[in-house]
Amino acid sequence: MISYLSRKNRGWLLLGYALITLFALWAAIPFYLVILTSFKTDADIMTPSARLVPQSFTLANYAKAFLGTPYPLFLRNSLLTGNTDDSPIGTQAEECFGDLISQDYNLIAQTPSPTGCNVIGSTGHNLIGIFSNVLDFQLLDHGGATGTLALLPGSIAIGAGDPAGCKDELGSVLTKDQRGFPRLGVCDIGAFEYQVQTFLPLVKK
């Protein structure tokens, strides 16, 4: 059986569709403005007379969102060195950028200008500056399950860790390094504990 809507019922149905469409458009306006604003420059956003269409489109805000994390970074007994600036505009500091919350006994490579990181927190025993011959930046098999970057002989990081022992995020003392090698005496800064090699003299009989 085919049923037909009366002209009056069709009118109410069309009116309902129109109201739903208008409500959907009204609800979408805030999302549209947020997305539109994300493509505006700072100067365009601060313009007193708001524009529906940006004067110039930019992706800089998205670059900031992905390259500059708002989450705090905590470092304890860690090495922060040997990094490079791979940002699209190439103006970030090479080693780090933004706030860095130190829990002490870190080595942080920091150029005089730009300084890059704003190091806060416990900083009394940090080594901050430009240091040479800290690490061998070749990722090699030095034992253990993963490749590691070895401390070089004479590295300033050797024996510069916490005298009470290098600790994990819960404050427990780490008796071994990343490779599973023992921490000896005052631990070294970083995941690699430098092992002094000793050789016995060869005696001929």
Task: Please provide a brief summary of the model.
The chain has 205 residues and is α/β, with parallel strands linked by helices.
Biggest sheet architecture: 3 strands, parallel
Average pLDDT taken over every residue: 80
Number of individual domains: 2
The SSE string, one letter per element, is HHHEEEEEE
- Our Rg estimate from Cα atoms comes to 30 Å
Question: Segments where pLDDT lies below 50 for 5+ residues?
Answer: none
Structural class by SSE content: alpha/beta
Question: Which strand order do you get reading across the main beta sheet?
Answer: 1-3-5
Shape: elongated
Measured distance between first and last alpha carbons? 114 Å
Task: Count the E strands.
Answer: 6
Helix content: 10-25%
The DSSP helix count reads: 3
- What fraction of the residues are assigned to beta strands by DSSP? 5-15%
